[in-house]
Amino acid sequence: MTEIVLCSNCFKDQGLRLNALNIGIEKNGFCPQCKTENGRKLNKELIEKLAYRFFVRGTLNRTYFGGASVIQFNEQHYKNSSIDVPKWLENDIKLIEDTIKVGFFYYGPRLWMVGEVEPLKKLELESEKHEIIHRILKEYPARILSKKEIIYRLRRNPKNPSNFDEYDSPPSERLGENRLDSVNLPIMYASQDLEICIHECRVTVDDKLFLSTLCPTKDLKLLDLTEIINEDVTEFESLDRTVLMLFFAGEHSYEILREIAFTAYQAGFNGLIYPSYFSLVHTGAMPFDSVYGISVRRFPSCKTHAKSQIIQNIALFGRPIKEKIIAVKCINRLVLNKIKYDVLFGPVD
């Protein structure tokens, strides 16, 4: 596996070439395939990684809830590839196939990956959603946000940046615009991850940004929806997958999430810990990662790995600064100094 067999210059497709350039080895010498000297070198292990990044990660298709890759590859399909590719990619894919002895095929995902999860479907039914919401409150653990911890809240273009009230929950006329708040429940959104604060606020270089550092004045009881709960069911009946898919979905999930938040408020919680919508682009994880169609979140040995893919956000109910359960430690101007993107490529069709 350590023998160099290709280099980044071997590929014609620019996206595939840039992917290869990114993961290849900087090593002197001529490529045994294309005979050039300045390309990043690839052994068979790196070529397999390249194929996964381009054809599997690069064809991820997000659905209404969930998502799955369109293309997969394995050794059983060698010399029997069945995918259509653009003309400029034909020689590249044949080179990969013959080098690591694999074939590419269209992937039919297990249906749980694209939202066929029973608790999730029940949450969309008025007659059954309350049963699932009460299960969520019962089966997910509580966590204490202690007085020793700090959280961040970012504001862009506030009218009076030094006014503590600017960092409380949005005013009444703005309620019901975001993921968890409603006209009956103001919510302060915060995080312990500074970069996630920036992502969540959808900032631009023209914005004037101000960051408040906050701390609880007393221990706060939060419902932790980022925990991987123990379940003796398949993915099709999983409450864990249900909650994860809700938070990774778009605005069509907001109504359900607002009901979960309001029910938690009525049950006496001070707020929620929930997965950031930007978790996966922040950690670089594969959405709904699986092995042979089985979610990695089901394997006890993978629990730490799976939890590391999720970035926690914090939602505090009411107006915690006004109610003096959150104190402002300090406020700073925040300046975007440098932005860097880590991108992958995939086939156009």
Structural class: alpha+beta
What number is the mean pLDDT? 93
Radius of gyration over all CA atoms, rounded: 24 Å
Number of domains: 2
**Strand composition percent:** 15-25%
What percentage of residues falls in helices of 4 or more residues? Answer: 25-40%
Largest sheet: 5 strands, mixed
Low-confidence stretches: none
Number of H/I helices: 10
- Strand sequence of the main sheet, in spatial order? 7-11-12-15-9
Multimerization state = single chain
Order of helices and strands: EHEHEEEHEHHEEEHEEHHEHEEHEE
Q: Globular, elongated, flat, extended or rod-shaped: what is the shape?
A: globular
Could you characterize the architecture of this molecule?
The protein is α+β, with helices and mostly antiparallel strands and 349 residues long. It has 2 domains: 6-109, no CATH class; 116-334, no CATH class. It is 26% helix and 20% strand. It has helices at residues 14-23, 44-56, 90-100, 118-123, 129-139, 194-200, 239-248, 254-266, 279-283, 303-308, and strands spanning 6-7, 41-42, 60-62, 67-69, 71-74, 103-106, 142-145, 151-156, 187-191, 209-216, 220-224, 271-275, 290-291, 294-295, 312-317, 326-334. The strands form 6 sheets. The chain has a 5-stranded mixed β-sheet with strand order 7-11-12-15-9. It has a 3-stranded antiparallel β-sheet with strand order 8-10-16. Helix 5 packs across helix 8 (254-266). The longest helix has 13 residues, at 44-56.
Output the keywords:
349 residues, alpha+beta, 2 domains, 3-stranded antiparallel β-sheet, 26% helix, globular
